[in-house]
Structures are given as C-alpha cells and as structure tokens.
Amino acid sequence: MVVPSITRRAFTGAAVSSAIIGTAAAQPRPLVRVAFGSCVDPREPQPIWDSILAYKPDLFIFAGDNVYGDSKDREVKELKEAYERARQSPGYMKLRQSVRHLAIWDDHDYGVNDAGGDMPFKAESKEEFLKFWDVPSDDPRRQQEGIYYAESFGTAGQRTQVILLDIRWFKSPWLPSPNRGALGMERYVPDNDPAKTMLGPAQWAWLADRLREPADLRLVVSSIQVLAEGHGWERWGNFPRERRKLFELVRQTRAENVIFLSGDRHLGALYRETEGAPYPLTEITSSGLTKFFPNSREPGPNRLGAVFGRANFGTIDIDWWEKKVRLSVRDEAGQPARSHSVPMEEMRFRT
Ligand SMILES: [Fe+2]
Q: How many CB atoms lie within 10 A of CB 32?
C-alpha cells in the first residue's frame, strides 16, 4: 500500500488489486476506513492533508472541485495550470502516492462554474482529468462519454461498492432564480421540465446495472448534494423529477445500504431523508479541504444538526461486525465536528 508506483495505479482498480493481492476483479480486502473531500485550491494552504494521512484511510475519494481550473476556451490553460499547481503541492501528492484513491470532477475541474452538458470544451477538460489522474489507456472512461466510474472492494458480506457519478457531462441547464441571492433561491429554483436530465440516458442505464451488482454497502458519490433541501445552490432537488427517479431506481434495483457522499458547498453537513425514499437515506457532505464559508447559515429541513463552516474532510468508518456505519465531518485537526451512525439494518427494504 505504500509503493508509489503501485498505489498510483490503484486508482484504476482491478489490475492493481491483482498486482497487490493476487486475485481478480473485486478487491478482497474489506474497506474499514474511507475518507473523502472536495473543493481544494492548491493556491491555498492545505494543512488538512496531514490530518487525512493521520486518519490512515483505506481509500480516499476526491469528490470534485479537486482543483480550481475555470477556463476561458478550449486551450484550458487555467485548468492545466491548476493541475500543475496540484502536482507541486506536497500534501496533495503525498496522499496520492500513499493512499489508494478514486476521483470524480465537479464544475471547477470540469472547467466552468455550475456548468453542464452544453459546456463547449468538456472533451479538452476530460483529457486533462484522465492525464492528471493517471487513468490507463484501456480504462472504459477513455471510450465513454463522461467520466462516471465504479469499483468494488472486499468480498461477499463485506463488500463496499463505490459509485462515482458524473454530474457535469450530461446535465441540462439549471433554471435560474427569479430572485437571485434570496434565501432558499440563491441561484436556482426547482425545474419540473421532464426533458431535463441530471445523468443522461447512458449514465442512468449504467447506474441501474451497477445498483444490481452485489454489494453490502454502496457509497454513491455525487459532487453536488442529493438530499439537501432549503437552499437554492446546485443540488439534485433543483431537478425534482430526477431526484425522484434516483429514489425509484434504488427501489427498483433493490439496492440496500446506499449512502450518498457529496461536496461542492464549502460547508460540511449530514442529512437524512425519509419522504419518498425507499428506506431512510443518509448523505454526508464534505466541502472543502481549503474552501469554506465561515459564517454558513441556511435552513436545513432534513439536515442532522448544524452545518460546519470550516475546512473539513469526511470519513466513513465501517464496522462490519456491529453492522454500523459512522459518518463524520472532521475538522482540520482530524477531530469529528459532526457525526452520525447508521445501522445497516436501517438501510433495508421492509417488504
Ligand atoms: Fe462545485
């Protein structure tokens, strides 16, 4: 786990687990400690990497806005520079070289703030993503539209599936707020247009197939918030039909033990939703590793406790014996600032 040449390739999954452990597709060693984070600008101080390394995660997930590379055109000069700064960032690279990791993008490493499928230089941005994250030449992400990806760790009974959704490549345009800046409708308002999509047909079909695969815990990573209500920034709730479709897909595929991970918001928080949900659904938002709003206040009808407006990373501690998952938003020193335990029993279908 500490040989840089191997762990760097660990990002790609099956081939690497074969190299380390000597078996096939699903990685045999169960995950017990997962950490994740988002919204890191390598121009800013990043003391938080030391705390993440001290936590000793089995896996780290870069949940989007992994650099701030908003660009003007298809040269993507700013994005290239941002990745270069990340390469020069000792903590960032130490984590990448010593911890198995996965990555998905959000708008600022996609290339344009709040952008979606109509972004004109998304192919160029994707090229830079594949390069920076060392995605090998035979990886499916090089052939498909978008960079959605999934990987499973551990064997039956202790298998964790990580699903990384691409929220940018196919997304329809948001409906702008008629009252920009007002509480609850800061930028966007819910749009019930049935033509609007979050994932696009190909990614929806792929997600259905993934949810039908066997897993004992599913970490579904969406760079933008899935369950959060009460604000008018980017979130699944701005496409209510798409959010309902997601819940319905979980129901149809009988996918138990789904937990959502998200970032983007420059705050940390925990959410629990029962309305319209197949079983009580939980979300942990961690943002950001360097970006945060110290005075964050917002309504949170389905939030568990207050938001956390300091630098933070998220952790998922999996107790396979007690069958419990502990979600924590941790501060810069690695101390839990917000925590919530979910018994796996709760994330089951009753009928
Ligand atoms: Fe974002």
A: 17
Output the CA 265–ligand 1 centroid distance in Å. 7
Q: Which helix (H) or strand (E) holds 343?
A: strand 336-343
- What pTM does this model have? 0.93
Annotated domain spans of the chain: 4-347
DSSP class of residue 336? E
**8, 37, 90, 236 from 57: Cα distances, Å:** 15, 12, 18, 28
Q: How far is the CA of 119 from the centre of ligand 1 (A)?
A: 15
| Å from CA of 244 to ligand 1 middle | 22
CA of 30 to the centre of ligand 1 (A): 30
User: What is the spatial distance between Cα 169 and Cα 200, in angstroms, rounded to a whole number?
Assistant: 8
Question: CATH classification of 4-347 is 3.20.20.70, yes or no?
Answer: no
Of the candidates 199, 208, 218, 232, the residue with the CA atom closest to the CA atom of residue 325 = 218
Mean pLDDT by 10 residues, the chain (351 residues): 33 34 58 98 95 98 98 98 97 97 98 98 98 97 98 97 98 98 96 98 98 98 98 98 98 98 98 97 98 89 97 98 98 98 97 78
- Cα-to-centroid distance, 237 and ligand 1 (Å): 15
Residue 306 Cα to ligand 1 middle (Å): 21
What spacing in Å lies between the alpha carbon of 203 and ligand 1's midpoint?
A: 20
Note whether 327 and 284 are within 8 A (CB): yes
Q: How far is the CA of 107 from the centre of ligand 1 (A)?
A: 5
Which residue stretches of 88-239 are H helix? Answer: 90-98, 107-110, 122-132, 200-212
